[in-house]
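Input record (Table S2, row 230):
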Amino acid sequence: MPVITLANTKGGAGKTTAALILATELARHGARVTILDADPQHWISHWMDISGAVRNIQVISHVTMASIQGHIRENRHNTDYFIVDLAGARNTLMATAIGLSDHVLIPIQGCAMDAKGGAQVLELLGHLEEKAGIRIPHSVVLTRVNSLVTTRALQVVKELLAERRVTVLDTPIIERSAFRDIFDCGGTLQTMDASRVSNLDKARDNARTFADEVRRLVPLRTVGTVRRAA
Ligand SMILES: Nc1ncnc2c1ncn2[C@@H]1O[C@H](COP(=O)(O)OP(=O)(O)OP(=O)(O)O)[C@@H](O)[C@H]1O
Ligand SMILES: [Mg+2]
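Output record (magnesium ion complex):
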């Protein structure tokens, strides 16, 4: 039951959106997903409330530093993937969640190129490895990327991050109204009405490719929470 945490200390980087897209896609593939909602804005808890039951997904609200480990322990037998949605802040809950993670996904807005919040998460991961010998696998996912941005431009960003030895997912999350509307409509991209949401098919394709990449990076057989660096 791998734990995947979405982290970026900058508000509005796209953590909650990426967390929900990932959770609904993993659940569609039959994985039992527990979302640990530690975002003070509770968007995912609200989404669950208006959705009613969604197959394979449960949401635990008001997750705190004191409760997170207990939630993971208590639900590990009924969960294939835990997804942690954090606040856009640098705090002890973030450090605790990262320490419990099998993979940290760092959403960085591709359009704004504002990587400062992401850099703070990378810094913390670097400290953990240097000082405590704990290496937590992590990667950047570019979010809110304009659909017209060329592959070449994204390649440049990837190369810049690669120079810092940071892995960037091949699939960016594109700016799509479906990824906003899902929080108002509830349900999943599959249950949304294609006649009311523009480019829903493209959003579905994007979500599928993103989640497939994450599943390859964090397969279900991953066991344990932290690894010691060699
Ligand atoms: N791919 C996307 N397409 C369209 N809108 C998006 C996308 N990603 C994020 N947004 C919008 O950008 C805003 C911020 O996104 P989100 O809430 O996911 O960020 P966050 O990192 O969780 O923010 P916070 O730090 O405040 O928790 C929201 O209004 C959301 O609907
Ligand atoms: Mg959020």
